[in-house]
Automatic annotation (TrEMBL):
Record carries keyword Signal: no
InterPro entries: EDG3_rcpt (IPR004062), GPCR_Rhodpsn (IPR000276), GPCR_Rhodpsn_7TM (IPR017452), S1P_rcpt (IPR004061)
Residue pairs linked by disulfide bridges in the UniProt entry: 183-190, 274-279
Organism: Cephalopterus ornatus
Name of the protein: S1PR3 protein
Keywords assigned by UniProt, alphabetized: Cell membrane, Disulfide bond, G-protein coupled receptor, Glycoprotein, Membrane, Receptor, Transducer, Transmembrane, Transmembrane helix
Transmembrane parts of this sequence: 49-70, 79-97, 117-139, 159-181, 201-225, 246-270, 285-306
Keyword Transmembrane: yes
Entry superkingdom: Eukaryota
Protein location: Cell membrane
Gene3D superfamilies: Rhodopsin 7-helix transmembrane proteins
Record membrane topology: Multi-pass membrane protein
Domain G-protein coupled receptors family 1 profile per the UniProt entry, residue ranges: 61-303
Pfam families the UniProt entry points to: 7tm_1
Length: 321
């Protein structure tokens, strides 16, 4: 393939001082995002401040979850290990998104292509790991319901196998573009949202995330059916109440997941379908990404604050008693 070249004046910023990466300029110019980056200022506006505060909140609440689990021996079991891993994923998502914001705007044009791939790839890893963790929790709950057995310390290998698989898949997915699955030297295949990413790679990732969503819905539906049938057999009022509580939790989990992620999935599909510079909504992707990141703020509330024991642990952690 022909080498990518740029005229010399494309390598200098409008102020004539900071050098720009020719590859970044080429791809951002092709997708119509170059002018947006050039018009950006170094001043932090209100939406950016709001996003940074959101990231700080995500880091703080997930750090509290990790500390609470670490300090309480009662939380040293399979399910809380998964919740701890989810909190770690979401904490990293908050950090990575904050770094991503601080490296955006005009700074994007001064990044090398390698740093650009690391910046975007780390977002895919962090958010992907969070999503895969949700699936791992659903799998663990389903397996526990099928076997109907209490916690067995000798089965910790299954926990770490699932957790390790989550991170392995997420890191592998995030690393694919920098390893070669990108649109360098093939501009027609470039995503508008992520100008160095191949549309085929975007379709591949979205297909995986949609499959995860479907799997989570199926698993939680089966869990509820199992609990419901079990409560009918026992005909116990407490079991019936527990079934309804589980149903409410399932509805909240799935609804929040769909509400946070579906808009971004749809936007990426629009990106794949649209010709370059034809869909203006693609230039508003930051709002859709922020909505997906909000899922990392909601997870601790859904999975931990609903627990009376975790609420007590949080209270002791905050008041230091």
């Amino acid at each position: 393939m022909a080498a990518v070249t740029m005229p010399p004046d494309a390598l200098v910023s409008p102020q004539g001082s900071d050098e720009m990466d020719s590859l970044i300029v080429l791809h951002y110019n092709y997708t119509g995002k170059l002018i947006l980056r050039e018009k950006a200022t170094d001043n932090i506006d209100l939406p950016t401040i709001a996003f940074l505060i959101l990231c700080s909140f995500i880091v703080l609440e997930n750090l509290m979850v990790l500390i609470a689990i670490w300090k309480n021996n009662r939380f040293h079991n399979r399910m809380y290990f998964f919740i701890g891993n989810l909190a770690l994923c979401d904490l990293l998502a908050g950090i990575v998104y904050k770094v991503n914001i601080l490296m955006s705007g005009k700074k994007t044009l001064r990044l090398s292509s390698t740093i650009w791939f690391i910046r975007e790839g780390s977002m895919f890893v962090a958010l992907g790991a969070s999503t895969f963790s949700l699936l791992a929790i659903a799998i663990e709950r389903h397996l526990t319901m099928i076997k109907m057995r209490p916690y067995d310390a000798n089965k910790k290998y299954r926990v770490f196998l699932l957790i390790g698989t989550c991170w392995l898949i997420s890191i592998s997915l995030g690393a694919l573009p920098i390893l070669g699955w990108n649109c360098i030297n093939n501009l027609a295949d470039c995503s508008t949202i992520l100008p160095l990413y191949s549309k085929k790679y975007v379709v591949f990732c979205i297909s995986i995330f949609i499959a995860i969503l479907v799997a989570i819905v199926i698993l939680y539906t089966r869990i509820y059916i199992l609990v419901k049938s079990s409560s009918r057999n026992v005909t116990n009022h407490n079991n019936s109440e527990r079934s309804m509580a589980l149903l409410r939790t399932v509805v909240i989990v799935v609804s929040v997941f769909i509400a946070c992620w579906s808009p971004l999935f749809i936007l990426f599909l629009i990106d794949v379908a649209c010709r370059v510079k034809e869909c203006s909504v693609l230039y508003k992707a930051n709002w859709f990404i922020a909505l997906a990141v909000i899922n990392s703020a909601m997870n601790p509330i859904i999975y931990t604050l609903a627990s009376k024991e975790m609420r007590r642990a949080f209270f002791r952690l905050v008041c230091g008693c």
